[in-house]
Q: What sequence folds into this?
């Protein structure tokens, strides 16, 4: 379970370090505070799972790192976003273009919107190879076929001339991953499609990424709604709620000692191993926060059975509850949820 990350990963400097990320969207009568003071780091070769329900800020957080969101309406601020010795938050648009898709590969949520339907898959794979790595047409085509083979597309060479619609949903996702990996990135950010892909296809994609990670040595950020999905592949997990990190921990620790009531609630929504699909419909009662103001109280308090006055009066910071384990919950203070 995620133990194939290099042993020295625990002590090696992070490949990516994000401190104090905030993203707001200007709307007609105010702002949506989509990402509120998010900090995390990613170690070489590790797989970090990012979990949280719809609207919790998973995609906006990761897109903000690379300024993939138009501003305006977005306003992105960070204390620092360190990657390969540079602060991405201080780079110009031109400098950032050399990082996007090249040093940090990115798979968008909906494969249909990110693969361009009017160009062949081969063209879309060859484009970054030619633009970023300066390959000739012939070199790029050869590498593109290798990349399709790498992500498990049978008979790859002739398939380069096919258009996205000639691939199935699962195959399109593989193509997206191939494009994201084209320039040998140091980090791959994969945003799981919200469109209901067949569960077995989803599992295959996860296996693929897990396998690729050890073969290409990239660190991976895997975004998903589903805590069950990260259980099998993540080294560490970051749980988001209301645009904040509410808990982070190594994966086993999170499952054994979930501390934030939101994480516990998420775990309760997991179907049992032999459960049928109806189990998947279990949800957490109540509505996610509106995010129209910066959080002045715990964003989960209105839905939390254990909330008390302090939770409604002040937003808890991340409190250390164990080695590499933190939870943004006042109840975690003094190890209330401890072993
Ligand atoms: P999902 O699991 O559904 O993909 P998510 O966790 O990725 O959800 P985000 O897409 O990051 O959620 O959205 C975080 C918040 O930012 C949401 O409240 C969303 O409505 C808001 N948001 C995202 N894009 C915009 C935008 N362009 N303008 C205004 N608000 C936005
Ligand atoms: Mg999203």
A:
């Amino acid at each position: 379970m995620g133990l194939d990350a290099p042993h020295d990963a625990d002590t090696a400097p992070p490949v990516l370090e994000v401190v104090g990320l905030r993203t707001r969207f200007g709307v007609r009568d105010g702002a949506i505070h989509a990402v509120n003071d998010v900090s995390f780091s990613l170690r070489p070769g590790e797989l970090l799972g990012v979990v949280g329900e719809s609207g919790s800020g998973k995609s906006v957080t990761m897109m903000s790192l690379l300024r993939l969101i138009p501003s305006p309406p977005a306003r992105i601020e960070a204390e620092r976003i360190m990657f390969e010795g540079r602060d991405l938050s201080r780079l110009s648009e031109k400098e950032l273009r050399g990082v996007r898709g090249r040093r940090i590969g990115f798979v968008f949520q909906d494969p249909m919107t990110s693969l361009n339907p009017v160009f062949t898959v081969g063209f879309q794979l060859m484009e970054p190879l030619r633009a970023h790595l300066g390959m000739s047409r012939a070199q790029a085509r050869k590498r593109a076929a290798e990349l399709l083979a790498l992500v498990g597309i049978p008979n790859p060479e002739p398939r380069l001339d096919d258009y996205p619609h000639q691939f199935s949903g699962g195959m399109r996702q593989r193509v997206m991953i191939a494009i994201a990996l084209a320039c040998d990135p140091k980090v791959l950010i994969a945003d799981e499609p919200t469109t209901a892909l067949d569960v077995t296809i989803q599992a295959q994609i996860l296996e693929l990424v897990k396998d690729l990670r050890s073969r290409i040595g990239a660190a991976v950020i895997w975004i998903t709604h589903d805590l069950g999905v990260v259980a099998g592949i993540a080294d560490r997990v970051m749980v988001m709620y209301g645009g904040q990190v509410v808990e982070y921990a190594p994966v086993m620790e999170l499952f054994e000692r979930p501390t934030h009531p939101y994480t516990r609630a998420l775990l309760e929504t997991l179907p049992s191993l032999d459960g049928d699909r109806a189990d998947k419909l279990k949800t957490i009662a109540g509505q996610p926060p509106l995010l129209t103001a910066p959080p002045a109280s715990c964003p989960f308090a209105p839905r939390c059975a254990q909330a008390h006055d302090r939770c409604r009066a002040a937003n808890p910071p991340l409190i250390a509850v164990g080695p590499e384990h933190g939870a943004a919950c006042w109840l975690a203070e003094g190890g209330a949820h401890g072993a």
The longest strand covers residues 30-42. Confidence is low (pLDDT under 50) at residues 1-8.
